[in-house]
Specification:
Blueprint: H1 2-32, H2 51-57, H3 60-69, E1 86-91, E2 94-101, E3 104-109, E4 117-121, H4 123-131, H5 135-141, E5 146-149, H6 153-159, H7 161-170
Parallel strand pairs: 1-4
Antiparallel strand pairs: 1-2, 2-3, 4-5
Length: 172
């Protein structure tokens, strides 16, 4: 009887140890995602354009460039999950959806109902941010742009949103 209790304890302790080790490995791998991937280099879509031209031509390329500028490509799918990071942009009367898959930012003109955050701004504010990435913080500080969080804190942390938060809000 005592031998059976000891076996059960040993099995229980072994299972707990395996789960702890597996959790630590997945957490470590999740934090490493994207650190060694090469940075995507894009041509700034507002280069050579007046503000009026940039507002008129505003499209997915503009949103993509802005997201790369605030390091959104560092977002990642959490371990043991298939939920990729998604950001919705409400820019005047247009809605853009960005999804980050393995360090690549894919932007479509569409609406999403499963975004993690919603960024609201105007085209002229977005153009100013594209001209000077340091203006991003000023735009949010002044209230000309805003972020609405729709996912839970644990999900945001697991996907790596802390970097984006620091780049657009915390430095304000």
């Amino acid at each position: 009887m005592k031998n059976m209790k000891n076996k059960k304890k040993l099995i229980f302790i072994s299972i707990v140890a395996i789960l702890i080790i597996a959790g630590a490995v997945f957490a470590y791998l999740g934090l490493q995602t994207g650190k060694n991937s090469p940075k995507t280099i894009l041509k700034n879509p507002v280069a050579g354009l007046t503000d009026e031209e940039a507002v008129r031509l505003f499209d997915e390329k503009f949103v993509s460039y802005l997201l790369y500028a605030i390091d959104a490509d560092s977002l990642h799918t959490p371990p043991l999950s298939s939920e990729t990071p998604k950001i919705k942009f409400e820019i005047e009367n247009e809605i853009f959806e960005a999804e980050i898959i393995e360090g690549r930012i894919i932007v479509k003109k569409a609406g999403s109902s499963d975004e993690d955050i919603i960024i609201k701004t105007s085209k002229i504010e977005a153009v100013k941010m594209l001209r000077d990435v340091n203006y991003v913080q000023e735009s949010f500080k002044s209230g000309k742009s805003s972020v609405e969080i729709t996912a839970g804190n644990a999900e945001l942390f697991a996907k790596g949103y802390l970097t984006i938060y620091e780049n657009i809000v915390e430095k304000v």
